[in-house]
Design goal:
CATH architecture: Sandwich
Strand order of the largest sheet: 1-2-6-5
Structural class: alpha+beta
Radius of gyration: 22 Å
Number of domains: 1
Order of helices and strands: EEEEEEEEH
CATH class: Mainly Beta
Strand content: 35-45%
Number of helices: 1
Number of strands: 8
């Protein structure tokens, strides 16, 4: 039995990229990549030039770019083992997100600082 690991390297121009390594085997496993239980097309698995595993590229489907949290699952097809998941949040779901609230507070604080400085200059 081989041990499989998939490590993300980057998400660039709508393509998730990672490195697939298999201990105890020389063949790349077949990946089952799905979004909402539908297969994601155009997934590539190619031997890396340095010989250290395989380069995996998963294009983010256009239909996944919508409001809310979206998840793409990457599984080993033969064992069904989950190797990785790609999760991203966009749109209205961010309105309640703490980071978005913090950004709004910073913007309001900057506005108040400018107004206060303007007030101080005008009253002198």
């Amino acid at each position: 039995m081989s041990h499989i690991t998939l490590t993300k390297t980057r998400l660039f121009e709508g393509v998730w990229e990672g490195v697939l390594r298999v201990e105890g085997g020389d063949d790349a496993p077949t990946l089952d990549v799905t979004y909402l239980d539908n297969p994601v097309p155009d997934v590539t698995v190619a031997k890396r030039e340095d010989g250290e595993g395989w380069a995996v590229q998963v294009p983010i489907p256009v239909e996944a770019l919508c409001d809310g949290a979206q998840t793409i699952l990457i599984n080993d097809q033969s064992s069904g083992e989950r190797l990785e998941s790609i999760t991203f949040i966009s749109g209205e779901a961010l309105a309640d997100d703490l980071r978005a609230e913090l950004d709004l507070l910073r913007a309001e604080l900057d506005m108040l600082k400018r107004a206060f400085r303007r007030h101080c200059v005008e009253t002198m």
